[in-house]
Write a structure and sequence with these properties.
11 strands; CBASS_pafABC_assoc_protein; WCX_dom; alpha+beta; SH3 type barrels; 4-stranded antiparallel β-sheet; 308 residues; WYL domain-containing protein; 5-stranded antiparallel β-sheet; single chain; WYL_dom
């Protein structure tokens, strides 16, 4: 079987176990046989299901390749995926990416009917090296160029985590120069060097807690989160309801006249830019300071068209 055929089989196993925990071997076998046409698209030499011995080998390979543990429970009598919430999110993203890759690969003759976004994030070539450094607690060195500065600088940092926002990747790391944890955009990072020096990961650092009350990549250290109440028109509200702005989102009103929500966030530049993007479909109810900021920004934008 080709490598693509093996990986397709692994992902079918994962997809089945994700949709139904405690799946028996017989149920897995039946599922794989029903997916035979799909598997043969990946490898036309494949013509049968999997034996128990092959399944155990696949489980071992899945653990090594994807870092996903598949266990067998004797009580419900079935296989299940054992993972944390963070691992579950990574698994979902991996499955989405592979489904997209497979669909596009199989639909190569449908190119006239598929339009892909041409804008792609830069700096992703360093993802593997950064993940290696984070996992092995290696100090790294790189050249960094801020957009608002003419000259580049050499940074030596302790890498803690990676974060994605708006199709851009950021490195969370402690700058050895001043000891502060900062975010570094990967598209402005070059000449990455993984040193032999190691560091101790701080027990009190948690990327989820750091950004718990933040929208975007900016994490204010000296600002308390506050309740933010936003009112959208009903049509825009349908989008906000199906794709919440933040995990803290609570729906206050949802009728034919208004869609109103409450968020618990720090007011940051990223949040203000997001709210401005809704234009006249949004009204900030609370806090008044945020409403004033949005109002001022709209007035400045309007004044751009009043100049002779």
């Amino acid at each position: 079987m080709s490598k693509r055929g093996y990986i397709s089989r692994y992902l079918l196993i994962l997809r089945r176990l994700k949709s139904k925990s405690y799946t028996t071997y017989e149920e897995l076998l039946s599922y794989m046989e029903n997916q035979l046409d799909y598997l043969q698209m990946q490898d036309d030499r494949l013509s049968m299901g999997i034996s128990k011995r092959t399944l155990q080998r696949d489980i071992h390979d899945i653990r090594n390749l994807f870092g996903i543990d598949i266990e067998y429970s004797k009580s419900p009598k079935g296989y299940f995926i054992q993972q944390t919430e963070a691992e579950n999110m990574n698994f979902q993203r991996m499955m989405e990416a592979f489904d997209m890759f497979t669909s596009l690969n199989l639909a190569h003759d449908l190119k006239p009917y598929i339009h892909l976004e041409t804008r792609r994030p830069q700096g992703t070539e360093n993802l593997y090296g950064l993940l290696h450094a984070i996992k092995n607690r290696c100090v790294i060195r790189f050249t960094y160029h801020k957009f608002w500065e003419d000259d580049s600088s050499i940074r030596t940092v302790e890498p803690y985590a990676l974060k994605e926002f708006r199709n851009r990747w950021y490195l969370m790391a402690k700058d050895k120069k001043d000891g502060y944890v900062k975010s570094f955009a990967l598209d402005r990072l070059s000449l990455l060097e993984i040193t032999i020096s190691t560091f101790t990961y701080p027990p009190d650092f948690n990327v989820d807690n750091t950004y718990r009350y933040c929208f975007g990549i900016i994490s204010p250290s000296d600002e308390e989160p506050q309740d933010i109440v936003l009112s959208f028109d009903p049509f825009q509200g349908k989008y906000i309801n199906t794709l919440p702005l933040h995990s803290s989102q609570q729906v206050l009103i949802n009728n034919d006249d208004e869609f109103r929500i409450k968020l618990r966030l720090c007011v940051t530049y990223d949040l203000v830019m997001e709210l401005l993007s809704f234009g006249d479909n949004l009204k900030v109810i609370e806090p008044q300071s945020l409403a004033d900021d949005i109002k001022t920004a709209h007035k400045k934008a309007y004044s751009q068209y009043q100049k002779a």
